[in-house]
Amino acid sequence: MMRSKLMNLVPRAVATTSRQMSTATKLTTVQVDDKTGIATLTMNRPPVNGLNLELLRDIHQSIEEIEGNKSRGIILTSSNPTIFSAGLDIFEMYKPDKERIRAFWTALQDVWLALYGSSVPTAAAINGHSPAGGCLLATSCEYRVMLPKYTIGLNETKLGIVAPKWFMSTFESVLPRRLAERALNQGRMFTTEEALAVGLVDEVANSKEEAIAKCAQFIGTFAKVNPLARALTKQQLRAEELRQLEDERVQDLEKFIFFVNQPAVQKGLGIYLESLKKKATK
Amino acid sequence: MMRSKLMNLVPRAVATTSRQMSTATKLTTVQVDDKTGIATLTMNRPPVNGLNLELLRDIHQSIEEIEGNKSRGIILTSSNPTIFSAGLDIFEMYKPDKERIRAFWTALQDVWLALYGSSVPTAAAINGHSPAGGCLLATSCEYRVMLPKYTIGLNETKLGIVAPKWFMSTFESVLPRRLAERALNQGRMFTTEEALAVGLVDEVANSKEEAIAKCAQFIGTFAKVNPLARALTKQQLRAEELRQLEDERVQDLEKFIFFVNQPAVQKGLGIYLESLKKKATK
Amino acid sequence: MMRSKLMNLVPRAVATTSRQMSTATKLTTVQVDDKTGIATLTMNRPPVNGLNLELLRDIHQSIEEIEGNKSRGIILTSSNPTIFSAGLDIFEMYKPDKERIRAFWTALQDVWLALYGSSVPTAAAINGHSPAGGCLLATSCEYRVMLPKYTIGLNETKLGIVAPKWFMSTFESVLPRRLAERALNQGRMFTTEEALAVGLVDEVANSKEEAIAKCAQFIGTFAKVNPLARALTKQQLRAEELRQLEDERVQDLEKFIFFVNQPAVQKGLGIYLESLKKKATK
Lengths: 282, 282, 282
Known about the structure:
Strand order of the largest sheet of chain A: 1-2-3-5-7-9-12
Largest sheet of chain A: 7 strands, mixed
Shape of chain A: globular
Distance between the termini of chain A: 45 Å
Helix content of chain A: 40-55%
Oligomer: homotrimer
Strand content of chain A: 15-25%
């Protein structure tokens, strides 16, 4: 909050050397194009943008910063050339620290509430694979442009995990119920082409630059729209899902804590981490 | 109610000179085809069928009349050659009279409750542009046939207004959630062709006569259906949306009154009216 | 329950002469393919698989048996070469016995709760016509494969009946709202081709064997999915509809009893039965 207030004191045109200005936390970058007024929020946590406590807090802070700096919209993307976000960082859930795991889940709730409920137009430039939590971030935006040959989906059931209700309702707000249910049960990962066919993504672009340009074009469709009326309209449309989590934040946290501490879940995560290590050493 | 009771005393075959009978209030016409038993409800308030208090009351009364005269269905259309309805009459909202504005909004609620909840089959022959309130009327019907080269949509955000929840739920009952949300945020007007592609209208016709014939054909699909079972089925399917407004009529009215009296809204309406005047004098 | 416990004591490989094992109640057959672990539940009540009290109880018992015997999934089909199920047996509703009619409706509720809420993957091999209650069973499954030249739909309004809310919500979980509402109002029966086009069925097969193979293929998509995570995911997705009936079982029963005893409904059923007799004697 401090940061975003300071930012507002700096006139936009002055703050940029080229046509962009930028603030960086450790794990995210925010660049506001002063021509279009659109902010690009880049996730930058090598190697795979695993959503750990720090990255989630930085994403949350960046969204609040953008909301505060009067940007015209948010484009969410990744600095990684092949991965948008690999989803929740499994190291946060495997043999978790009692305090940290609570902060981690709370930060995830904060990110979703801020992104799904954002008052400005939001779009995802999906420049790489986007499983699980990565898909949650992308589907929380209003528009999705994806690069070819990647995959996206909520594959929780394949990892032996159950996605929380708000992951599911976000997914169901994009896909028809019949397809959403089937994909969630299957833990299905869609290729870019499949995602386009069912409407899980809206457009395909051949480069990150083109993806960002198409996202900017979508945000541009609101140029002649009253921003306050737009924000209130979006809020009203998403009120039910937002209120549901707001009302059940504590129960949702306790449910996750209980679940993640089940021996079977811990065992499953252990096996999964072992398989990742083997892959890495090949 | 009085009128519709009197009507029922007149045998249908006798009352018509040609094959149609007709009752007219000042701003609507009801013609019942005595061959098909289908009532055509025509909005007739020059120049653009702006929905003011009187037109809304006449539409409401006409729907009740049709429900009472045992018609087989309702076809809603316009006497204007290029406009179905331009939506809510802005003169009702700009510098409003304290009593009249309440009666106006209440009449709009009445029309929607009667049309969306109508026990008989309903279809709209959309023979002209259909923005905002015009789109609400069309989407409250069960079927839509539209003429080419017109536009339809809930463009409230472009006017700096927020559509009430029941406008949105009506719209969402026709379009997939993802498309409905985006269009509502954008205040998007769909061309006839675009509306057909996404399912916002069901058919395109090349003339008003053809549109009415196609609406009659749709209503004809219920010929072998038990009318009471049909009415109860429709009621059950639409119960949630209807109940929501019925439960919140007072709050919905107060919310509108509060909103419309905001200085920013009044200013916006003033600017809009000024731009209409300039257009008219060109 | 007894039966299914006994079954579990018999090692699967030993219990089969060919590659299938089978238990049969009077009106259903359950065959578990010991290669795939998938159970085929066949309705077998000549002449048309009319859902009477006994068939419903046998279907319910068979589902519970399959859930208990650790099968990998359920394929629901019919032994009749041209009819999947003709729906609720009208003889249960025409001049009903006071006790039996309550048991009948309760058994129908049990079947739906067990099938719609089943923890294992479910698919319907629709090898014949599937009106009303037959369509309910098919749409309660997660996947549908249908043979050509048959029809499927909830045609209650054509019979002067109103489908209960849970029939409708099951139907709406498969079709887009706009199409579901229209079809329910019309009592529309879809041909196989029409059903495929709107997504009411997922695939077409040219023989019962092929339909069952395609259902098995669908169930096979869960091979690498954690069964518990899958069951909890499905349960969460279907929780609202399931809870609604569970919460309103008694009211739903009383509503049906009241409705079925209306003179107009009894008269309608009588006329319908008379027409069936005439058809049969032609």
